């Protein structure tokens, strides 16, 4: 039909129909966009959700009566695990326990603590019995976990002046006791692989600066000490012997340099999880070139990864400075895990995009995985 012969009413009617069709199309487009936005909101957290989400930092060391870090944790919706450790420069483990219990009593919903063992008298005939007695007392007071430190393998020697590794039979009854009492064993064994590399081959600036300033701890310069591989092998052997113990490898189990290597251990040892304390930059380093691999690793092993920082708060540190550092670190890490924004951090060269993990994964790595392994235990 030639449009020249259309009547005015017909033209107006057609215009009306076209208008209705366009409105329906616009409404459908708006509905689709709304649905997508709603789905995204249900699937992912935003940066603004930081303080709304329950979180757990499972690796801090509070060696002071000052509750500043705990108060910042309250403000940022964190629970804390303060870990006693048999390390130089720290108070004796009995004093660390006293301080921890003081905070647990004052803030029972905000903080828990992990006890530790001392290897000071490791070669004495009664060392095992005394260590188990100390752990028994710690458990009665509410300790939810036990920390083994890197002096095992890096400092401790036997009667023949040989380095003692964590798979030494002397530790077997200690680990069995921890398992029987349904506590978690946290172990910092070895160091980052960078420790055994020349400085120009290291991956993150923090390691480069630290070992440049502390050559006595730079194992590349000390071949008389156990190798990186020996530490990993000893830890793996210990887990083979104690497949029933709930184990958390501190600092990504010293496998921070490769998500592939870490995945191999998580596949091999079902009782193993790892905390991220002081090792998140290593994920970020790998994300510069292989973001999707790192993101896929988090998704696949979402039940085995635990958020942690390794904050140290002692009497010589200013409370306000500690609170500021904690908030900035917690916020920056949240941005890495919850968003896909482009980021840079002082620890590494180059930029990377955040992992933008789903709410389900975030809830696990920030809280649920920790709750399973460090749930509160009521003192007897």
TrEMBL record:
A Pfam family found in this protein is Amidohydro_2
The UniProt keyword set, sorted, is: Hydrolase, Signal
Per its UniProt entry, which superkingdom is the organism in? Bacteria
Q: Please state every residue range assigned to the domain named Amidohydrolase-related.
A: 127-372
Q: Which GO terms describe its molecular function?
A: hydrolase activity
Residues in the signal sequence: 1-27
Put simply, this protein is called Amidohydrolase family protein
Specify the species: Adhaeribacter radiodurans
């Amino acid at each position: 039909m030639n449009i020249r012969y259309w009547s005015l009413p017909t033209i107006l009617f057609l215009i009306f129909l076209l208008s209705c069709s366009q409105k329906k199309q616009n409404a459908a487009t708006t509905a689709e966009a709304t649905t997508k936005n709603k789905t995204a909101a249900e699937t992912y957290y935003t940066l603004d959700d930081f303080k709304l989400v329950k979180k757990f930092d499972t690796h801090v060391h509070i060696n002071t009566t000052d509750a500043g870090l705990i108060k910042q944790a309250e403000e940022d919706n964190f629970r804390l695990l303060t870990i006693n450790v048999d390390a130089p420069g720290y108070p004796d483990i009995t004093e660390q326990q006293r301080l921890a219990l003081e905070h647990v009593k004052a803030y029972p919903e905000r903080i828990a603590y992990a006890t530790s063992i001392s290897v000071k008298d490791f070669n004495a005939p009664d060392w095992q019995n005394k260590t188990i007695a100390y752990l028994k007392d710690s458990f009665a007071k509410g300790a939810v976990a036990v920390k083994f430190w890197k002096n095992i393998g890096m400092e401790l020697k036997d009667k023949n002046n040989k380095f003692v590794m964590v798979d030494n039979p002397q530790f077997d009854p200690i680990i069995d006791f921890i398992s029987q009492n349904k506590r978690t064993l946290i172990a910092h064994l070895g160091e980052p692989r960078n420790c055994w590399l020349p400085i120009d081959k290291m991956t993150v600036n923090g390691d480069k600066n630290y070992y440049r300033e502390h050559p006595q701890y730079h194992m590349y310069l000390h071949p008389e000490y156990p190798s990186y591989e020996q530490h990993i092998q000893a830890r793996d052997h210990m887990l083979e012997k104690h497949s029933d113990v709930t184990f958390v490898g501190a600092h990504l189990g010293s496998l921070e340099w490769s998500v592939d290597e870490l995945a191999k251990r998580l596949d091999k040892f079902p009782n193993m999880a790892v905390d991220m304390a002081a090792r998140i930059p290593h994920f970020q380093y790998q994300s510069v070139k292989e973001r999707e691999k790192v993101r896929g690793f988090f998704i696949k092993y979402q039940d085995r990864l635990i958020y942690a920082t390794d904050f140290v708060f002692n009497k010589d540190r200013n409370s306000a400075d500690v609170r500021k550092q904690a908030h900035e670190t917690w916020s920056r890490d949240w941005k890495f895990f919850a968003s896909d924004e482009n980021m840079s951090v002082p620890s590494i060269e180059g930029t990377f995009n955040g992992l933008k993990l789903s709410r389900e994964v975030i809830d696990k790595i920030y809280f649920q995985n920790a709750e399973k392994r460090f749930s509160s235990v009521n003192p007897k």
